[in-house]
Amino acid sequence: MATWFISRLSTEGKDLQQRSAITFIEEAYEKYKDMPLSDTRTPLPISAVKLCSGALMEELLASENSGHRGAIAHSYMATEQRYKEDFIEDERSALLSVLISTKISLKPENRQDAHEAFSMIAGLRTGRIETAIQELQTNYNVLEWNDRFNRYEIIGDAVSRSAFTSFLRGHVNKVTAEQVEEIFTLNIKNWGNISNVVSDFATDNNIGTMEWGFQVECTNLAGLEKCDQDR
After folding, report:
1. How far is CA 45 from each of CA 62, 102, 189, rounded to the nearest angstrom?
2. What does the chain look like in DSSP terms, one character per residue?
3. CA–CA dist 9, 64 (Å, integer)
4. How far, in Å, CA of 97 to CA of 138, rounded?
5. CB contact at 8 A, 142 and 79
């Protein structure tokens, strides 16, 4: 996936504005060349996510500034800057996987297909990717699934769940008991599916006029007191 990512950026010639693909391969080699191998001497894989260093991200941003391939890199950077102290590594990797899959025009058939692709892009187990995506959607509110195009999209200007909850709580605390009563009074007919009363008396007695129908009105104690005063 890392090779595909770099090759795709290089061959299309739109996302790499100032540097060549070899530059990023060299940077990756220099970054990981001193990491020890396991006892099995298994080669160390470098995921596509690990290639997204500062230099490559600068290239993607410059490409978008030039009008190429949307604005997902800018959305990622806006999200990263806002939550850089809060994201754990899996969450950051999942978000980068969304960015990379968009840049290489990946076309998943459904969410599970996308999760498996992200697993390969990030070099993580699918379960870890799904946990990270759940956090990004529910608590950070920076990721959403587009049913029309079958893809995840980064919401760069969204607010987190905690911030939104705090905002709502602040407004709720300003609502008085009288205002709550008024809200229920105005909406209880719709909420309770309460309709006007049609009496059987008119039908049973062959009365064709409408005086035996009753219109339901909802009120609260304050409303009853006002009616009593008016009477």
Report:
1. 28, 22, 63
2. -HHHHHHHHHHH-SS-SSS-HHHHHHHHHHHHTTPPPPTT-PPPP--HHHH--HHHHHHHHHHHHTT-S-SHHHHHHHHHHHHTTT--HHHHHHHHHHHHHHHTT---SSHHHHHHHHHHHHTS-HHHHHHHHHHHHHTS--EEEETTTTEEEE-TTPPPHHHHHHHHHHHHTT--HHHHHHHHHHHHHHHTT---EE-SHHHHTT--SSTTEE------HHHHHHHHHH-
3. 13
4. 18
5. yes
- Name residue 166's amino acid: S
Whole-model pTM: value is 0.64
pLDDT recorded at residue 44:
74
What is the phi/psi pair of residue 209, to 5°? -85, 170
Q: What is the pLDDT of residue 59?
A: 83
Residue 181 has a pLDDT of: 82
CA 179 to chain centre: 33
Domain spans, the chain:
2-162, 175-230
- Which residues in the chain come in under a pLDDT of 50? none
